[in-house]
Amino acid sequence: MTILMEKPELVSQSDFQNHADESKELVLDGGFPVPKSLSGEGFLAPEINSFGNSFRDYNAESERQKSVEEFYKQQHVNQTYDFVQKMREEYSKLNRMEMSIWECCELLNEVVDDSDPDLDEPQIQHLLQSAEAVRKDYPNEDWLHLTALIHDLGKVLLLPKFGGLPQWAVVGDTFPLGCAFDEANIHHKYFKENPDYNNPSYNTKNGIYWDGCGLDNVTISWGHDDYMYLVAKENGTTLPSAGLFIIRYHSLYPLHTEEAYMQFLNDEDKENLKWLRIFNKYDLYSKSKVAVDVEKVKPYYLSLIEKYFPAKLKW
């Protein structure tokens, strides 16, 4: 299947933050209100999250922030190059169960992400909020609507039937392994306790990689991103490469937000990064306490799942 995609209209990271002092709301099919500028042009990012803090503010004083920092300490100490290789080998078998994409969406009702300072709601609501916000601004890019819906499905790794992995092995910002830990990584100080930190093969800027090698050749910390990418790819999805790129690297904030590790990108990565940066606005800023009416939007997303995926997938 050939997917025709419009070239994304690039917007700087700073532009994502700017919006009018006064706003209106556009209500989508699921009853989810999306901020709308007075000119009516697109989704605009709110300034604060549902806890009253700035988005991705890892320094705000709160009990949730303390638990988020403890999470990152555990992640930075335990995610090593060898650990990721073992996880990829184990989960590439896709022998946990068979189910549809929508069945997996429903499973996510059991998951709350401890690494997220902006949200403590069931994950299915975040998926639908992201997808509905994307759908508003990019009505013709149905692959992007579906990508937004499924981008976090890999978080089922937290559930017992998928191995019950600890939070630090499933969620949170991701980062390359096999090279030096860039200071753009959140809570960078905890990497000093990682066994790879003093490995001479890994502690230079490029480590075992080279300029332009392509992210596909770079080992990224294990988690829900890479797992869902493996599931989609091995089950023969017809999503375009930009969709798979978004799924695989949407948590790689040091790269797509701070522009660290850019030396590893090849030409295809650079093109796909444009779409990832567009998607990130909806992934981050659409988190809300306002619930989407799941049953109302379900038929639309089932039609997209049927278009781009087989009826049952191996997980």
TrEMBL record:
Q: What EC identifiers does the entry list? A: 1.13.99.1
Keywords from the UniProt entry: Ascorbate biosynthesis, Cytoplasm, Iron, Metal-binding, Oxidoreductase
InterPro entries from the UniProt entry: Inositol_oxygenase
User: Under the GO molecular function aspect, what terms does this record hold?
Assistant: inositol oxygenase activity; iron ion binding
Q: Which family does it belong to?
A: Belongs to the myo-inositol oxygenase family.
Q: Which Gene3D superfamilies match?
A: Hypothetical protein af1432 (1.10.3210.10)
Needed co-factor(s): Fe cation
Q: Would the keyword ATP-binding be found if you checked this record's keyword annotation?
A: no
Q: In which pathway does it act?
A: Polyol metabolism; myo-inositol degradation into D-glucuronate; D-glucuronate from myo-inositol: step 1/1
User: Where found in the cell?
Assistant: Cytoplasm
Coiled-coil regions listed: none
* Keyword Oxidoreductase appears in the UniProt entry: yes
**Organism ancestry:** Eukaryota, Viridiplantae, Streptophyta, Embryophyta, Tracheophyta
Under catalytic activity, the entry for this protein gives: myo-inositol + O2 = D-glucuronate + H2O + H(+)
Q: How is the cofactor bound?
A: Binds 2 iron ions per subunit.
- Can you name a GO cellular component term? cytoplasm
Q: What is this protein called?
A: Inositol oxygenase
Quote the record's binding site residues for Fe cation. 126, 151-152, 224, 250, 283
Span-the-membrane segments of this chain are none
- Sites where the protein binds substrate: 56, 113-115, 155, 172-173, 250-251
GO biological process entries = inositol catabolic process; L-ascorbic acid biosynthetic process
